[in-house]
Write a structure and sequence with these properties.
Blueprint (H helix, E strand, L loop, with lengths): L11 E2 L3 H8 L4 H27 L17 E5 L9 E5 L8 H21 L11 E5 L8 E3 L4 E3 L14 H14 L8 H23 L9 E2 L14 E2 L8 E2 L3 E2 L15 H4 L5 H14 L6 H11 L9 H16 L3 H12 L6
Parallel strand pairs: 2-4, 4-6
Antiparallel strand pairs: 1-5, 2-3, 5-6, 7-8, 9-10
Helix pairs in contact: 1-2, 3-4, 3-5, 4-5, 5-7, 7-8, 7-10, 8-9, 9-10
Length: 356
């Protein structure tokens, strides 16, 4: 259950709908076809997600014999169909097989589990050892990955714009973090609270990558989805936390629309009020905090964000200022009036978000 009055599950994908919308209008069927099919898949999954709010998702418990504080991963092959989960192809403890996509999914689930356990003492997504299931090879040329409230799902990409969605470990961490948010603050997926929902997934997705690679805040690239874009695309990733708005500038995809500060905040009715766009603002704030504090970002900076997400005071409809205020409080309570607090206060000031 959540801390904020029960589940309000949402359907969250790593590729923003405005990107697929643009591709779907392209004159080249090699680009528009996969995008249109992906949008159709997403529409179906979004409807299925809403149904779980009415009838309830099935309860999932750790299997008998599962070891405490150890992941329990199961990977399925959807066989390019939409029926989930598909055929079981690897389970916890099994050796890697010949399918690199299966192996990457397995490893990425493990990296996510490890970061939450080792850095924050959290036992899986729900804090109670929830099994981690994932389906790969979903749909035909499916250009997305998502958490559906019960499991992870990965497309293979179209190999024109997007490659295999299991390639970037931060994509896996991003989507699973939607599950963490679902089980904690349960942020409403619209407007600023939705942008915070997306930003938290980017933050912890990036931290999972940094932890897996052993990178400090100064060494990290702060890109979300690096390695996902096909060679023909002029860009480095889906988003940049270091420099929002610079991840891509492509003749097909257009230019990355993310703002870095409130001066460029985008007001739109699309994408649930711009949740994938305005998330650049709190993303940049976290980057500024982490690099100002220095060292490993998952330690002090990540701890402040984790305390804020799980502390029980973050409301479902929180605005940026609400979240910022709670990070200031969390920094003061955990670290006192030191460098950490100053870094948090200065970062929010730099992106134009007032703390109350």
């Amino acid at each position: 259950m959540t801390t904020n009055g029960g589940f309000q599950p949402v359907f969250c994908t790593i590729v923003p709908p405005h990107v697929l919308d643009r591709l779907a209008r392209n004159e080249d069927p090699a680009l528009s076809g996969p995008a249109r099919r992906s949008l159709e898949h997403d529409a179906y999954q979004r409807t299925h997600r809403r149904l779980t709010t009415v009838i309830g998702a099935p309860a999932v418990a750790a299997p008998a014999g599962a070891v405490a504080d150890q992941p329990h991963r199961t990977i399925y092959d959807a066989g390019h169909q939409q029926d989930l989960p598909g055929t079981k192809v690897r389970e916890e403890g099994a050796e890697p097989g010949a399918d690199a996509t299966v192996n990457r999914a397995y490893t990425g689930l493990g990296a996510t589990f490890e970061l939450y356990l080792k850095a924050y003492g959290r036992n899986s997504i729900d804090g109670e050892g929830l099994p981690l299931d994932a389906s790969v090879h979903f749909g035909t040329d499916y250009d997305n990955a998502f958490w559906n409230g019960e499991q992870m799902v990965f497309g293979d990409g179209d190999n024109e714009i997007f490659l295999d969605f299991t390639i970037p470990v931060d994509v896996i961490g991003h989507e699973l973090t939607h599950g963490v948010t679902q089980h904690t603050a349960n942020l409403t997926y619209f407007g600023q609270s939705g942008a915070l929902n997306e930003s938290l997934s980017d933050v912890f997705g990036s931290l999972i990558k940094q932890y897996a690679l052993g990178q400090s805040a100064a060494e990290a690239d702060w890109l979300i989805g690096a390695g996902l874009l096909a060679p023909r695309v002029t860009g480095t990733a889906l988003r940049s936390m270091k420099a929002p708005g610079t991840a891509y500038d492509d003749d097909v995809l257009g230019k990355d629309p993310q703002p870095a500060t409130m001066d460029a905040y985008v007001r739109t009715g699309r994408d649930n009020g711009g949740v994938h766009i305005n998330s650049g603002i709190p993303n940049h704030a976290f980057y500024l905090v982490a690099t100002a504090i220095g060292g490993n970002a998952w330690e002090r900076a990540g701890q402040i964000w984790y305390d804020t997400l799980t502390g029980g005071e973050l409301k479902q409809d929180a605005a940026f200022a609400d979240f910022a205020t709670l990070t200031v409080k969390a920094a003061r309570e955990r670290y006192g009036a030191g460098d950490e607090l100053q870094a948090v206060q200065k970062a929010w000031e730099q992106v134009g978000v007032r703390t109350l």
